[in-house]
UniProtKB/TrEMBL annotation:
Pathway(s) the chain acts in: Porphyrin-containing compound metabolism; heme O biosynthesis; heme O from protoheme: step 1/1
Name of the protein this chain belongs to: Protoheme IX farnesyltransferase
Gene encoding the protein: ctaB
Keywords (A to Z) from UniProt: Cell membrane, Heme biosynthesis, Membrane, Transferase, Transmembrane, Transmembrane helix
PROSITE patterns, A to Z: UBIA
Membrane-related topology note: Multi-pass membrane protein
Species annotation: Roseibium salinum
Function (record text): Converts heme B (protoheme IX) to heme O by substitution of the vinyl group on carbon 2 of heme B porphyrin ring with a hydroxyethyl farnesyl side group.
Main localization of the protein described in the UniProt heading: membrane
Amino acid sequence: MRQDAAVWNGGMGSVSDYVALLKPRVMSLVIFTAFVGLMLAPGSVHPVLGAVAILCIAIGAGASGALNMWYDADIDQIMSRTRKRPIPAGKITREEAFAFGMTLSVGSVVLLGLLVNWFAGAFLAFTIFFYVVIYTMWLKRSTPQNIVIGGAAGAFPPMIGWASVTGGVSVESFALFLITFMWTPPHFWALALFKSGDYRAAGIPMLPVVAGETSTRHHILVYALLLAPVGAGPYFLGFASPVYGAASALLGLTFVAMAADVWRKREGDAARLACVRLFKFSIFYLFMLFALLLGESLIVGV
């Protein structure tokens, strides 16, 4: 009924409601990883153009979030984690969210292309398309591998930041992509384990719903084992110091230990706590890897 009222009234969204459409927490991660990619890229870019590039990437990420909420409004109102979002809460209509997202998408891509370079602009356009069409419209509702494949969209920003400086991509930028790409499945599966009821009710084939919790725990542990050496990749490729190598190894081993804890604890509050701890630590893990890379780039540049 609240959604119907919003349609009739043309929406009642405030500025904060439109900000919520942008998924600001996700956007903050995108901004940070894109900035690290831009700072690590060889060569230089004018500070104003660098700021424009990061702003456009941030707007593009927000546009993707708005279009995701537009398309997923039907399932968002079912899930406890998402039912307070602006559309299911009746504050913004689907039509308004779609128009908002499309306007930001086109604007961010065109601005990045015109002011920075068209390779970066095209890469941003592809990333928005991948997240909205490939992941949201297709993979999310059709396969338990939705997060595995769809996670690429969230891993592209450091490559776009890199491309904003160089006009292309490289092995180093792909290494940055690979860290987030391999991190995404265990991060989201830890959340899905204790929110599986929501996904089941919404008909979303997340791994715990389709394959069961035991299989999901196996997958989390395997991905954690694969992520640990990938996280140290910048050191092995020679664009990070031994300090980064040692820190990334320690963080990776901790990630594996916490994933093993999720694998061992399978019932009751202990199992739920293990999942929550891994989910929270995974955010810290990714932040620390990119923060270390950023810190080293700033020290070298001094």
